[in-house]
């Protein structure tokens, strides 16, 4: 359709793109191919198969999807379920919903309170992983942690988060950690909505919730989709819960990235690790595809 | 009725704000207070006699100090410059040249990037860096971090570039500017807030990176703070809480300062809100 | 300085034909306006002259050179955009000097020329400011200064006044015309505002659906529109077009039951070959060429009063004639008391007749 003279010709464009292409090929495509190839072998770190891995066909995949054992703790199916719960809890509810709540609450408000909350939420996002892990370990500590001190004060006792509710703990942790991105994204998106849209609705007598439902949500549909996909991808692949729980206790917080790490780096079974990564990639790819299809649908009215 | 409703909404707003401050602020209290305490505890205790002894002790650890003042800076600044520059060029090209499949490309890159930051790719990445002879060198870490952060950075940048009015560049084109002049004189200044967002974001990621330096670096004097912090563990493997917290605070300050600076100068926000 | 020749110029976007076989010759030093409603293809034509769009077919000559596929930078043109496209991160001085900077003109000369041009255009005191710190009218002058500064052979204007309020628009109009007469540089000016085109241009091309409907001086296109499209596009309010039936033998047309003499329509003698007896035509008459009578009058047709709008120096009367709305301009500063039913008499020397296909009977 567009026939206007491009500001960059194809040649100049490719030239501008070439450093990125170099990095992408070297650090994304090559590892990607390596993972796929190695997932069909029994390559390991040491032993005879380290230097001369054997082609094992689909064996790694068959082992992953061994339906007799795969739902047992510490196996692939169990890890997938944990990942799903982790993604729904911390990505969709925790980050997308919380981030949107923050953006809407502070929409068109000014002043120190807004700045303070904004900065605080963003700080939680940019503090280094390791520091956050220490801070949260202290926060969640059964006997001395701030969380239990408060719960105890209002008569809810001192639950042992890391032992009794480890998955909930990392969901809470990851929501806290990542809400800033969604908040930033939705804040900017909200800023693009002309105030007259909301004022018209106000004059017409719409309540707060009606305004959200009838005006804000439909206008932000594209942004919500984009945010969901990015957050889902990142949550799916995040390794930071490892710093808090190490995947335990008893594999209860072993999301897929930690599972891969254990197989590949504790057991040094690179073949199997590759197979897990490939399956994870396929799932990521399917998610992105659903997203693209939904986005195409919504392009009709934007 | 109207006033009643207004009051309720204002009360709800403050309740929500207080809850948000509690949810996000409480986990950080320990980090802020403990370094100034003289008694180690996992509880949040307001220091009765604030002390800087913990920081003095931290500065005795030459290895940890070097991690913070040299290694971290090299890795984070190198990654930041690389990511910001390369992503700006690439996002500009994707937005302004008619490269076939450019939309699909941005998504595919995002997908791949989740692979490279994932744990499974650590082995091939280790092998690639070894093949380049860059094991135990900061350059190796920087290159891998650039590769991992680029796709998301391009994705974010593209939105900023798409928002530049085409007439700016067309006007420069008619004025006789070359593509590189248009990029340098017109496009880059327009996307500066976007570049700043990407710069902060990539700096923060590289500053906190743990796994990649851990795998690619060997000499202890080259390790960044994320791994050097473990030098405050006793030989029995338990952390010296006071020193760890003091070091953690020092480790955190630069990203906070950098963020505040950029936010104050340029405003840290996504402009159109990342549409696609 | 140079003339511009467009030959069979076409541009399609997918299935949409934006510009359709346009042929135009713009003289050296001429102020030429492209006028038409939004979406008619005028801006696309201008952008093809600038080199911002590549034509689907046809050729563009600037001077004697075929520039059809050249880059904008090779064409030596200057353009003022609708939104001015002043770079917000540069001062006015840097903005105006930018075309010189990319042409590698040294700093001293650059400074000299920017200062000269800016003083000339009355923005010499604003050079240190940024576009966001000056008014809309000043921004417009800065954009013009940037176009003027490097002595291009052709100026291109894309609706440069549409972001200004009415008073500033009037001022800027005079300023632009004066500047163009002084510099004598070939200028192509795109606008949808007919008053602007009339006031500024030496010649106007009216564009309709990608085609040139008529080219001529402001007087020509205003007084003798070649099509009903041009007739109804020019003038505010536009020309009245009344459906009528022709009685060739009596040289009369019938409107709303009255007979109107059209013997003074210059082409009436040649009309025989073009229309048949009793054919439906449209009678075109400008609002200022109608007289209004309270009683029945010869050579006048009856109309129902709809509304009167006093405009200060004149009064605009809107009436219904059968299904058609008719405007009459009365040059009086006192709104007249009018009965519901009045008679309208068109000036016989000013009557134009259009055929059902929209073309002037000629």
Notes on the structure:
Chain A is built from 15 helices and no strands. In chain A, 45% of the residues are buried. Chain A has 302 residues and is mostly helical. Chain A has helices at 10-38, 48-51, 59-64, 76-105, 112-126, 129-140, 146-153, 161-164, 166-191, 195-203, 208-219, 221-237, 241-245, 256-266, 270-298. Helices cover 72% and strands 0% of the residues of chain A. With 276 residues, chain B is mainly α. Chain B is 72% helix and 0% strand. Chain B is built from twelve helices and no strands. The two termini of chain B are 42 Å apart. With 362 residues, chain C is α+β, with helices and mostly antiparallel strands. Chain C is 24% helix and 33% strand. Chain C has a six-stranded mixed β-sheet with strand order 6-7-8-3-9-10, sandwiched between helices. A five-stranded antiparallel β-sheet of chain C has the order 13-12-11-14-20. A five-stranded antiparallel β-sheet of chain C has the order 15-19-16-17-18, with no helix packed on it. In chain C, helix 3 packs across helix 4 and helix 3 (92-102) runs parallel beside helix 5 (136-148). Chain C is elongated, with a radius of gyration of 24 Å. The B-C interface holds B 165, 167-168, 170-178, 181, 185-186, 189-190, 192 and C 50-52, 71-73, 75, 77-79, 81-83, 85, 87-90, 98-99, 101-103, 146, 150, 156.
Based on the coordinates given, report the CATH architecture of one domain in chain A: Orthogonal Bundle
Number of helices of chain B: 12
Strand content of chain A: under 5%
Order of helices and strands of chain A: HHHHHHHHHHHHHHH
CATH class of the largest domain in chain B: Mainly Alpha
CATH class of one domain in chain A: Mainly Alpha
Q: What name does CATH use for the topology of the largest domain in chain B?
A: MetI-like fold
> How far apart, in Å, are the first and last alpha carbons of chain A?
18 Å
The structure class of chain B reads: mainly alpha
Oligomer: heterotrimer
How would you describe the shape of chain B?
globular
Low-confidence stretches of chain A: none
Rg calculated over all Cα atoms of chain B: 23 Å
Q: Could you give the count of β-strands of chain B? A: 0
Biggest interface reads: A-B, 102 and 99 residues
Counting DSSP E segments of at least 2 residues, the number of strands of chain A comes to 0
The geometry of chain A reads as: globular
């Amino acid at each position: 359709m567009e026939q206007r003279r491009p500001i960059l010709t194809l040649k100049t464009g490719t030239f501008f793109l070439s450093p990125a292409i170099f990095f992408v090929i070297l650090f994304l495509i090559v590892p990607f191919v390596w993972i796929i190839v190695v997932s069909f072998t029994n390559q390991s770190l040491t032993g005879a198969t380290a230097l001369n891995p054997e082609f094992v066909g689909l064996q790694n995949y068959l082992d992953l999807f061994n339906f007799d054992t795969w739902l047992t703790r510490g196996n692939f199916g169990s890890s997938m379920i944990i990942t799903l719960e982790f993604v729904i809890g911390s990505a969709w509810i925790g980050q997308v919903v919380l981030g949107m709540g923050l953006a809407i609450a502070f929409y068109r408000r000014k002043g120190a309170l807004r700045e303070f909350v904004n900065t605080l939420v963003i700080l939680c996002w940019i503090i280094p992983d390791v520091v956050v892990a220490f801070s949260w370990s202290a926060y969640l500590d059964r006997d001395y942690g701030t969380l239990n001190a408060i719960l105890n004060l209002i008569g809810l006792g001192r639950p042992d988060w890391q032992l009794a509710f480890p998955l909930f703990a990392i969901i809470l942790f990851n929501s806290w950690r990542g809400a800033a991105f969604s908040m930033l994204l939705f804040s900017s998106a909200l800023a693009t909505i002309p105030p007259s849209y909301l004022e018209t609705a106000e004059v017409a007598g719409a309540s707060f919730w009606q305004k959200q439902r009838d005006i804000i949500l439909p206008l932000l549909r594209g942004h919500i989709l984009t945010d969901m996909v990015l957050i889902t991808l990142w949550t799916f692949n995040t390794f930071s819960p490892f710093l808090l729980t190490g995947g335990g206790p008893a594999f209860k917080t072993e999301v897929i990235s930690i599972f891969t790490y254990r197989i590949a780096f504790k057991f040094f079974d690179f073949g199997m690790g590759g197979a897990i990564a490939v399956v994870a990639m396929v799932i990521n790819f399917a998610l992105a595809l659903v997203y693209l299809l939904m986005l195409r649908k919504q392009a009709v009215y934007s | 009725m109207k006033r009643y409703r207004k009051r309720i909404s204002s009360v709800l707003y403050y309740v929500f704000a207080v809850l948000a401050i509690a949810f996000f602020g409480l986990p950080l209290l320990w980090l802020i207070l403990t370094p100034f305490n003289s008694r180690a505890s996992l509880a949040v205790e307001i220091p009765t006699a604030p002390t800087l002894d913990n920081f003095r002790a931290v500065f005795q650890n030459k290895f940890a100090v070097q991690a913070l003042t040299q290694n971290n800076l090299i890795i984070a600044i190198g990654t930041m410059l690389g990511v910001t520059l390369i992503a700006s060029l690439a996002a500009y090209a994707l937005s302004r040249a008619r490269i076939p499949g450019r939309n699909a490309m941005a998504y595919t890159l995002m997908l791949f990037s989740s692979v490279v930051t994932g744990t499974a790719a650590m082995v091939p990445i280790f092998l690639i860096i070894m093949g380049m002879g860059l094991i135990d060198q900061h350059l190796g870490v920087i290159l891998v971090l650039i590769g991992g952060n680029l796709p998301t950075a391009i994705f974010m940048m593209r939105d900023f570039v798409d928002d530049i009015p085409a007439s700016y560049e067309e006007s420069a084109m008619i004025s006789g500017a070359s593509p590189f002049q248009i990029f340098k004189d017109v496009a880059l200044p327009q996307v500066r807030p976007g570049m700043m967002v990407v710069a902060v974001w990539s700096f923060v990621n590289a500053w906190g990176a743990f796994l990649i330096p851990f795998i690619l670096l060997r000499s202890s004097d080259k390790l960044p703070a994320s791994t050097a912090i473990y030098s405050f563990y006793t030989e029995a493997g338990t952390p010296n809480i006071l020193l760890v917290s003091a070091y953690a605070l020092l480790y955190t300050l630069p990203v906070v300062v950098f963020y505040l600076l950029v936010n104050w100068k340029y405003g840290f926000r996504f402009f159109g809100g990342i549409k696609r | 300085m140079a003339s511009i020749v467009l030959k069979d110029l076409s541009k399609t976007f997918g299935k949409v034909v934006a510009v359709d076989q346009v042929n135009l010759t713009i003289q050296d030093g001429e102020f030429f306006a492209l006028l038409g409603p939004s979406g008619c293809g005028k801006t696309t034509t201008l952008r093809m002259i600038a080199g911002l769009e590549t034509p689907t077919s046809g050729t563009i000559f600037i001077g004697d050179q075929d520039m059809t596929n050249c880059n904008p930078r090779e064409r030596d043109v200057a353009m003022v955009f609708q939104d001015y496209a002043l770079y917000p991160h540069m001062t006015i001085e840097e903005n105006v000097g930018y075309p010189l900077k990319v042409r590698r003109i040294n700093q001293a000369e650059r400074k000299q020329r920017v200062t000269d041009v800016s003083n000339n255009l009355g923005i010499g005191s604003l050079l240190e400011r940024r576009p966001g710190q000056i008014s809309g009218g000043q921004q417009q002058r800065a954009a013009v200064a940037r176009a003027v500064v490097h002595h291009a052979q052709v100026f291109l204007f894309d609706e440069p006044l549409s972001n200004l309020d009415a008073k500033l628009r009037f001022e800027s109009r005079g300023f632009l015309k004066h500047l163009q007469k002084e510099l004598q540089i070939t200028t192509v000016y795109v606008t949808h505002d007919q008053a602007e085109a009339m006031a500024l241009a030496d010649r106007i091309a009216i564009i309709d659906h990608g085609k040139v409907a008529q080219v001529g001086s402001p007087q020509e296109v205003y007084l003798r529109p070649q099509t009903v499209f041009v007739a109804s596009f020019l003038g505010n309010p536009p020309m009245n077009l009344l459906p009528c039936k022709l009685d060739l033998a009596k040289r009369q047309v019938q409107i709303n039951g009255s007979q109107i003499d059209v013997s003074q329509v210059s082409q009436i003698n040649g009309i025989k070959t073009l229309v048949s007896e009793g054919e439906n035509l449209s009678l075109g008459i400008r609002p200022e060429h109608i007289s209004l009578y309270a009683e029945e009058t010869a050579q006048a047709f009856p109309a129902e009063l709809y509304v009167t709008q006093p405009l200060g120096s004149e009064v605009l009367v809107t009436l219904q004639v059968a299904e058609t709305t008719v405007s009459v301009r009365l040059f009086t500063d006192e709104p007249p008391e009018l009965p519901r039913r009045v008679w309208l008499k068109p000036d016989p020397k000013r009557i134009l007749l259009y055929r059902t296909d929209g073309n002037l009977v000629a």
